[in-house]
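Quick one, tokens below. Sequence please?
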């Protein structure tokens, strides 16, 4: 059986279930606190994106972006003609998290 990628993972759900998952994750109900803190910790600012030269925006499983002047954390994914994302206003370096 062929796969689209060695490490590809599929996730299908309704919007309500996706919201519930990211809320549970950000509130510490999915992984233990040490792993969650690692998910909200970016590499040292000296680590740069190899294409853009911007500071690294990926942590252990999550990424951070600025949308509309607000920092959000989440997970994105995609394959040919398909892209999805789950984001929420995120975390400070100290780990305070909010997910509405």
């Amino acid at each position: 059986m062929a796969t689209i990628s060695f490490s590809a993972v599929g996730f299908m759900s309704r919007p309500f279930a996706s919201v519930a998952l990211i809320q549970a994750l950000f509130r510490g109900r999915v992984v233990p606190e040490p792993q969650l803190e690692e998910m909200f910790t970016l590499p040292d600012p000296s680590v740069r994106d190899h294409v853009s030269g911007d500071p690294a925006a990926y942590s252990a499983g999550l990424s951070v972006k600025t949308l509309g002047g607000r920092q959000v954390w989440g997970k994105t994914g995609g394959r040919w003609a398909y892209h999805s994302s789950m984001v929420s206003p995120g975390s400070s370096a100290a780990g305070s998290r909010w997910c509405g």
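Residues 91-100 have pLDDT under 50 and may be disordered. Helices lie at 15-26, 33-39.
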